[in-house]
Design brief:
Structural class: mainly alpha
Radius of gyration: 16 Å
Number of strands: 0
Order of helices and strands: HHHH
Distance between the termini: 6 Å
Number of helices: 4
Helix content: over 70%
């Protein structure tokens, strides 16, 4: 069930991601790589809040700073990796939107696992050091 919620949020975040990417390209604000960075940052802000509250049901203010730091560190690592992959795919597929879509598919399962176990679960340990069971 968590994975289905994750995918639903990722679809919405991807709309923000791809929409920002296409707008930046269409209006000449940036080339494909810079537009990808802008788009990832826009979608990342939305995705953090949505995953925290909806996907992983982590409410309240507890651990939000640690979760945000970890989430945006993951995003910071994801942006150059996704952009490098986009640059490689653009060598074979010259249509930026298609190349971006293909490069983004690669990261979905990887970021889900890191989000579930590194960001929204590991940070929510109890004061005694125990980790609550993840909802399934």
């Amino acid at each position: 069930m968590i994975f289905l919620r994750y995918l639903a949020i990722q679809v919405l975040a991807y709309g923000i991601d791809m929409g920002s990417f296409l707008l930046a390209l269409h209006y000449g604000l940036a080339g494909p790589i810079a537009a990808n960075v802008i788009a990832k940052l826009a979608a990342g802000g939305f995705a953090f809040a949505a995953h925290r509250h909806f996907t992983f049901s982590v409410g309240g203010a507890g651990f939000i700073k640690r979760q945000a730091v970890r989430y945006f560190l993951l995003l910071a690592a994801n942006v150059p990796i996704a952009s490098a992959l986009l640059a490689v795919i653009l060598l074979w597929i010259p249509v930026p939107a298609i190349a971006k879509f293909l490069s983004d598919i690669v990261g979905v399962a990887f970021t889900y696992i890191l989000s579930k176990y590194f960001i929204f679960n590991a940070c929510t340990s109890q004061p005694d050091g125990s980790v609550p069971d993840a909802k399934t």
